[in-house]
Amino acid sequence: MKNVTIRNKEDSIISDLNLYDDPTEFIVFNVGNNTWGKPERVVREKILIENSYSYLDELYDELDVISRNEEIIDGESVHFVTLRADYSITIEEYLPSIEELILEIKLRILKHAEAVCEEGVQFLNYQFQAREIDCTRMNNSLKKIEIGGVWRGTWRDRNNVWRELTFNEFKELALKAGDYCEDIFRIARDLIDELSTLPFEDLRDYDLIAKWNYLINDIEVP
Fold it and tell me: Of the candidates 42, 8, 211, 38, which has an alpha carbon nearest to the alpha carbon of residue 113?
């Protein structure tokens, strides 16, 4: 990953943390649209005649002149100057801090855990989601029945189809989904807790799937 830093003529940063594998398109687009100011350019040299400039394409500072050249146009000598851009572009390899790497990996772990729980568990040949919100809903239904509610006989599967279940089957599903959600949470927490012990190189090359699969082999995948 490369970072493109843009500085103005005073060497102050005006744009930073532009991260790209290949920043070429980003630079070409912004240069073409004068996003950071005027690019390097060739204009006619200013000529002072009777207290005013003649043949002036642009009023410029002499400090911005990179070079001068002369061309013969229609038999006449015309002087041009090349002006430096209003900005400078620096491209460097981006090395995030350990804290940034840990945060990015943590979010990846949590997102992956959520996806695994969303895929869920198989029960009675159907797939049921086992996210924390799904387990909470099951728990709420069980509590409702504990205080005198009625089991309505169906629960929605991962494909949003209501499946007929007896109350005992529903309790079995709730236990299975709850156990699985808890197992996935433990794997995620173990991986997250390990991050602070890893060196920079391991964090930079972190292989989430390999580490996840190593730990998930210790539980019964539904």
Answer: 211
Say yes or no to pLDDT of 222 above 60.
no
Strands 41-44 and 76-83: antiparallel
Q: How far apart (Å, rounded) are the C-alpha atoms in residues 184 and 165?
A: 25
Q: Are 91 and 3 in contact (CB under 8 A)?
A: yes
Is the pLDDT at 5 greater than 70, yes or no?
A: yes
Q: Quote the pTM value.
A: 0.64
- End-to-end CA gap in the chain: 38
pLDDT at residue 220 tops 60: no
Residue owning tokens 């019964």: 220
With a cut of 70, say whether residue 99 has pLDDT above it: yes
Are 172 and 123 spatial neighbours (Cβ–Cβ below 8 Å)?
A: yes
- 120, 113 Cβ separation under 8 angstroms: no
- As to burial, measured by CB atoms within 10 angstroms (0-12 exposed, 13-18 middle, 19+ buried), residue 159 is exposed
Instruction: Collect all residues with Cβ–Cβ distance below 8 Å to 81 and sequence separation of at least 6.
Output: 42, 43, 44, 45, 60, 65, 66, 67, 68
140, 143, 147, 152 alpha-carbon torsion, rounded to 10°: 60
Q: What is the mean pLDDT of the chain?
A: 92
Q: Report, in angstroms and rounded to the nearest whole number, the Rg of the chain calculated over CA atoms.
A: 32
178 neighbors 137 (Cβ within 8 angstroms): no
**Cα–Cα distance measured from residue 180 to residue 186, given in angstroms and rounded to the nearest whole number:** 10
